[in-house]
Design a protein that fits this description.
The protein has 589 residues and is α/β, with parallel strands linked by helices. The protein folds into 3 domains: 132 residues, Nuclear Transport Factor 2, Chain: A; 204 residues, FAD/NAD(P)-binding domain (3-Layer(bba) Sandwich), CATH 3.50.50.60; 200 residues, FAD/NAD(P)-binding domain (3-Layer(bba) Sandwich), CATH 3.50.50.60. Helices cover 31% and strands 25% of the residues. The protein is built from 17 helices and 28 strands. The strands form 7 sheets. Strands 1, 2, 3, 4, 5, 6, 7 and 8 form an 8-stranded mixed β-sheet that branches. Helix 11 packs across helix 13 and helix 15 runs antiparallel to helix 16. The chain is globular, with a radius of gyration of 26 Å. The chain starts with 9 loop residues before the first strand and ends in a 5-residue tail after the last helix.
Amino acid sequence: MEQVLSSPVHVANATDADKVKRWLAKFEQALSSGDRASLEALFADDCHWRDVLAFTWTISPHVGKKKIVDGLIEAQVPTQARNFEIAEGRTAPRRIKRAGVEVIEAIFSFETVVGRGHGLLRLLAAQPENAWVFSSALDELKGYEEPINERRPLGNAYSRDGGDNWAARREKEQAFADREPAVLIIGAGQSGLSTAARLRMLGVEALCVDKHVRVGDNWRHRYDSLALHNQVALNHMAYMPFPPHWPKYLPKDMLGTWLEHYAAVMECNVWMETAFVGGEYDEAAGHWNARVRRADGSERVLRPRHILFANGIVGAPNRPKLPGLKDFKGTVMHSHDFRGATAWKGKNALVLGVGNSGHDIAQDLQARGANVKLIQRGSITVFSVKAAALQHSLYYDEGLPIEDCDVMVTAATYPMAVRNAQVLTQKMLEMDKELLEGLAARGFKLDVGEDGTGYILKVRRIHSGYYLNCGCSELIINGQIGLIQYEDIERFVADGALMKDGRVEKADLIVTATGYQNQQAVVKELLGDEVADKIGPIWGLDKDGELNNMYRPTAQKGLWFIGSGLSQARLWSHFIALQIKARELGLIS
């Protein structure tokens, strides 16, 4: 996702809109003729193109004139992209500063042999004949447009032919008694349900399986104080935005209830209390043999052509084996198992780990009357949620339609993301100067991430190592929550932590907020070593700066992954569904 600082918008005048039109016309002419020199002349020396399916059927970044022009010319023969023009009904061309660069920013539309798409164009305001940023993304497949708005189906409200009503049809659909799903989705959280809804709109039958009892339990069963750390404007789900009166930061139970309603309203096929227990891909038959276990203990072998892991980006909890921890006589639990702090009023608690979960749990314990100390194992990046909103609310807080915001956030190549994150991090450091100085004075170890990119690229690189402050930092600064450095602990003992200076930090409860195994371990367990080794890491960055194995094909045919937050679920479920539909149609071998 792109992170850039923006200045106030100046609506482009007619001349600026004409500049966009002229650029698009010249681009289309050069592209259709394969005129390399003319194409190169249209791009600035520092230029970026990120394609999402439209030209390359994958997520494909290109940096620099040569790579961009080579990629365009190679892809144009089968793609036959044409009709590039300023998009009707979208945010109009406008002048704005992005990362300190004044640009003319425009959303354009185009079509290819098989589909239609939109893209983002940023012309340098000082050199409007040159593009700094160009992106292209497939929106829909011709002949398989989603049945929404003016294409809404009539339904059978007035049918009198004696057929099943809606409820009976839905019951039969969900049973899959006489057919197989094309796609088996592991997990019925925001990512799984979003993708199931998208696939349904494209006429692809999908089945979500989830081990929980109710849809939304993946949120309900987390610690009581949990709420989203980014604002609601960013997090709307596909087809169903949250109500306008909902709070900016959604509490977890509210979100869980929303997911349950979403599954019903979007007619997602879901089997709850159902575990995916393993599978093998049958190359000759072109499908998986996927074993699922139902609540009654019975098993069924499903034969989907695609399996999508939508169970997050991590596996089982990391339960550390720490010196002496087995000798501790109090209660030890992982943050995964922590539900609430009420039972620990007046008790002593140690929380090992200072990421988001560790801070939230420590804050919850303190608020409920526990004496709590955090144990820090290494430096992390800390920013306030107010400062983080510079990134979270970018575009989405500019009064733009959410569809236009999504076009914008898919535009950044990795070098752009690094540069923009560096600029944004400096601004956040200025905003949080007093907070960070207070933490440092308490001995809290801080960093600003690799190459000064803050927490923003930590999310992409390791998905850990940061905290977005919701009030716990102030409690540490004023001493209401204590701080211990792990390096000062000799070992754990029966009644707490024995420090190297001989003191014992007393504890009744130790919470290990120590993260989770990676998703590759989950794949190894469920699909075997061969598949896990074939696809490699899941999440983290590949050589192009894209996420490993996320949102696009993997080295294992018919295996897909989607994860992370609600905004990623909304955005990338669309592109996964299009890729699967294209394969079902034979458009991609």
